[in-house]
Structures are given as structure tokens and as C-alpha cells.
Amino acid sequence: RALVISLFFKSYLAISRKLCDSGIMSPKALPKKELSGADKFHTPALRSSQLFERVASDQASHDPIGKPKVHAAALKQATGEAIYTDDIPRMDGELYLALVLSTKAHAKITKLDASEALALEGVEAFFSASDLTKHENEVGPVFHDEHVFANGVVHCHGQIVGAIVAANQTLAQRAARLVRVEYEELQPVIVTIEQAIEHKSYFPHYPRYETKGDVKQAFAEAAHIHEGSCRMGGQEHFYLETHAAVAVPRDSDELELFCSTQHPSEVQKLVSHVVNLPANRIVCRAKRLGGGFGGKESRGLMVALPVALAAYRLKRPVRCMLDRDEDMLLTGTRHPFLIKYKVGFNEDGLISACEIECYNNAGWSMDLSFSVLERAMYHFENCYRIPNVRVGGWVCRTNLPSNTAFRGFGAPQGMFAGEHIIRDVARIVGRDVLDVMQLNFYKTGDYTHYNQQLERFPIRRCFEDCLKQSRYYEKQAEITTFNRENRWRKRGIALVPTKYGIAFGVMHLNQAGALVNIYADGSVLLSHGGVEIGQGLNTKMLQCAARALGIPIELIHISETATDKVPNTSATAASVGSDLNGMAVLDACEKLNKRLEPIKEALPQGTWKEWITKAYFDRISLSATGFYAMPDIGYHPTENPNARTYSYYTNGVGVSVVEIDCLTGDHQVLSTDIVMDIGSSINPAIDIGQIEGAF
User: Fold this and answer.
1) From CA 492, how far away is CA 484, in angstroms rounded?
2) For 325-339, what is each residue's pLDDT tens digit?
3) Rounded-to-integer distance, Cα 358 and Cα 231, Å
4) CB distance 157 to 103 below 8 Å
5) Measured CA distances, 381 to 29, 133, 230, 243, 373 (Å)
6) DSSP alpha helices (H): ranges in 108-162?
7) How far apart are CA 232 and CA 373, in angstroms?
8) How far apart are CA 538 and CA 288, in angstroms?
9) 20 vs 464: which has the higher pLDDT
10) Which residue from 103, 153, 160 is spatially nearest to 128, judged by alpha carbons?
11) Which GO terms describe its molecular function (predicted)?
12) Could you give phi then psi for residue 492, rounded to 5 degrees?
């Protein structure tokens, strides 16, 4: 109703302005500050600039490190020639799998009847929990608290009840709709964090707490104490390529999977469990993904497992690619968070203590929710030093699809709370928020509340550079004038700093492998454990290998990520893909360089191809594996208190100017400036693309 009135008033302003301009009405009939209320937003002409560190002038021309190299597959992707999972040509005898999904949020399955679907010509099979043993049906990325198919009870709308396999996609989806599922509804149905708190619906082993200093004493001595809360909702991943998998049986006891996943080794492991084959009989391949953002780290199992089971049982190739509505229905989102905090500070706004409670909405299964919560707990203070901290975390069990990894993995939700706190403090003491930020910033040498020393902490330089680059104070003055002169349109400016820890929260995942094969013609095939999701990982790995071997990047090729080339890989996630895999690639290249050293010394004027030919005829191995394990990490408050939680931190500061239409709520970002410290970039073009893409 308010919007209808606002739009009516907007049209009144637009008509009045035209009448004033044409002289029908007096120019003074409408106050000047009211006139801009008639305006609509138009997409402005885009103007942008990117600044980055240039390489040294004496760097070798064939050394690509630090240079803004074009994404290795950019042209193929732009022309549509790049092959994704569902672009793999149809095979002889191939079948299509369609999922039967729950229509209730919490219910007991009383009847499951697929007879009508199976009666259709071309429908080959129907699979459900009854086709697997209890052990085979229990899966999950960590806790095995999920099922391939719902086992008697459904816990969310969109949970997989069964799967139809038919001759083609249209038939399979039509048949899936004919499967009759009857339910007996169960109570309670828990959707929100508040409902979970009311019903004490938490996963076990929580709450957990992290404490530093004496919070009680600090509150007693604080000049001000403020209590508040903030919340952040979910977010849909919306990768361009939905979940997809193709499974092909090889011989009688081998399976080959082509899967849109960030974690091929996890798919291999879970398929091995479900079809009861050892992992050495299962190969999972991923050439490239059409985006992932964390949504394909663990949730790929929802498509890959039914497809693999059907292919193994029917001995025919089986394919499934979710439609967009199916993908959004059955996969989870970013974790919604509710954060309650109590903060103590002095008259200047210097924070001395904080007690904070973090609740995340995990959905119906654990998935990676405990790690997401932990990272939120470790990032809530953002860039601000708080000497006395008590942070608690709860993982809430609800009847939603299981929420999962999403770019930032809990850190944005945590930092969101820190920024709320700093603004509350600034408001209460009556100071500019930028002054309160600077007063509380960490300095090099400070310790976090999880006992990690900040060895280099350049946030102040990022802050000052961003203020200068964005003309912050100049824009602030312009905004004050604009807001005074316009009643129905308002502008605002905001600055946000960030601190993000680089490492997997789970110790054993911080490892990577690589395989480098040099062929007799001098060309190099590189395999590593990371997955190309569009983020440019393969491009960076090519650059690392080119520098390490001292050859042009054009001689090196990466075909795909596959579990038969590099085993036991970690997910490509947590912003450590290039750190881990790059070091493994270097390790493999160093082994090869060592073997080639005597030949290079014997033929100092030789070319790369001549050295390789000589090595081949001298029977020197031209294949090497590489491995890397991130050192000095694995913090645990009692078992390993001196280790670091994160290998290092990346820092950034962003400033945005936004205009809103007070009548309609419509808004537009007018300008943004971002300064990121990511060390010496391997590829500034790729890294700027990642920063702009994230923004």
C-alpha cells in the first residue's frame, strides 16, 4: 500500500515538473528539493580502473609470474567451445536420472509407490532406500548423518526420496512426478533460528566456547556497556552450471564419473561406500565447473551418488543435470546467522571486552556447519583488537535443506557482527566511526582471541590508501550537500575493512599433490589436486610450472582434475587452492630440475627440447609427483595451543557510495573503491577478476 501511494506521488512530481518546465505552472509551485523525487535510476556508463604491482624490469620474458596473463580458457568460454559436464556427448545406451523429492518439511513416509511410473515405456528402474542396506544409504561429507534416499522420514522439503531412471530427460522427469508418496506429518517443523532456540534444537557437542582474558573484570571496569544483536539471512549460490554428473560403468566392477564438483576425492570416497567397491576402482574427473562458490564442495553428492548407483546396478551410462528450480530446491544456501553481543568500552570508544553468542542455521544435517560456525567465531572481531573475549557458538538443527559452504565460509557473517559492534560504539560515544575503527585496529605483533600472533598486519595502510583513492572526505562533503538539497533521494558512504584467515579449519585438509609428465617432444602435462571452477586456478598453476621449469607457458597443458592422477585431494575451497597446489607443483618441478641438472651442465647451450631428448635417451625419468603440507598450523586450545590457526591473512578495505530512492526503496551503487593486500600476486588479472567478481 505504501509503495502504491509512493508511486502515485512520484507520478504527481513528474507531471508537475513537466508543467513547471513548460510554463503552465509557476516554477515556484514545487519546492526545488522535491523535484528529484520524480527521477528514476538509469544504468550509468561504466568507468573503472585497476592498479597492481608491476614485475621487475629484469624478469625473464618467458617467466609469467606476476604478469596479468589471460585466463587459460577465456576464449573457449567466451565462444561457447568450453566443455562442461553436460556437454559430454551422449553415449550408446545412456539413461537419464530424475529425482523424486519430498513435498513435506518433516514427515514420516507411509507409502512409496512407483508402479505407475515404471509402467511407462522407456522407464528402466526406480531406486529408493529399500535398494540399499542401512549402512550403504548413510552418507555425508563428515558425519554420515545424511542418506542417499530418505529412510522412512523426511527432514526437509526437497529431500531426495527416490530416483527414476529412463531413456531420456523428459520421460524421466515425467515418470518422477508419477511416483506416489504418502506422508504422516510430524511436529515440530522448525525453520528459523528463533524456533530452534525455543525447541533447543541443536546438534550435539554445542555450544562451544572460545575465551581470552577476564571478560567479567573488564565489564566491571568499562565506562559503557552495550548489548545488541544482528542477523544475516541465507544466500543462493546461483552458479551458472547447476549440479551435474555422468557415470559410466567400465568392465563389471569399475566406475568412471564426470562430475561438477569442487571435491572429486570426496565423491570418489562416497561412491565407493554406496556401491561397495574399493576407491581404486572408481575414477572421478572434473575438467571445469561453471561456478561453485562452495555450493559444490559437499552437495555434489546429492546428484553423484544416485547417478553412480544407477549406472553400477544397471551397467549402463547414466546422466543427471538438475534444472535450476530443482537445484535451488534441494541444495542449501549460505548459513543464516543470529548473533547476540555485549560489548564494554571507554569514553573514547576503545573496546575492552566482548561477550558474543553465534547461532547458525545448519538445516537438517550437519554438513560443514560446525566449520562454518568456527570460522565465524574466529572472525567476529574482524580487524579490531578486543583484549577480553568470550565467544560461544550453537549449530541449530532445522527442517531446511542442509546449508553449506559459501564464499567466505562463515567469515562474512562473523565480520558483519564486528562491523555492527564498531558502529554501535561510535554512535554511543558520539565519534566518527572511522576514528573509532582506527583506535581499535589490530597492530603488528598483537594476538587474536585464538592466540595467533599477527606477524604482518597492513590494515592501516590499506585503510589510508583506500581513503585517498576513494576521495572519501571529499565525497562525504558532497553527500551532505546532496542530502540537504534533495528530500526524496539520499546518498550515503560506508567503509568496511576485512581480515580473512588463509587455511582450512580442519588440519588434514591443508595438503595437496601434483603430477608433472614431460614428453619426448618437450611438451609438459601438468595434473594437480585443485579444480578449475572459473577462478583461474589452472592459469596460475601453469605460471608456477613455467617459472619452476624455466620454459614458456605455451609448452605446458592441464587436461583435467582426476582422482587417478592425483589421489586423496582436498576440496578446492577456503581460498587456498593456489597456495596448496602451487607448492605441490613446485615440489614436482624441483625433482625434475634436479634430474635434468647434469644434462644442462653438459649441454649449457642446449634448448629445452634437446635436454629432454638427451634425458630420454639416457633413461632418466621425466615424470615426478609433488606434495605439500602447510606447516605450523593446527591450533587447538588445549592440545596444540602454540600452533597457528591460519597460515596468514589477507586484508582489504572497501568504500562504497550508494543512492536510495526514499519513495520506492530502489537503490544504486554510484562508486566503489577497493584496496586489497594479497602479497605479490601470481597473476594480477586473475586476482583483480576474483576481487571484482566477489564484490
Assistant:
1) 12
2) 999 999 999 999 999
3) 10
4) yes
5) 52, 47, 14, 35, 14
6) 115-118, 134-137
7) 13
8) 10
9) 464
10) 160
11) 2 iron, 2 sulfur cluster binding; iron ion binding; molybdopterin cofactor binding; oxidoreductase activity
12) -145, 155
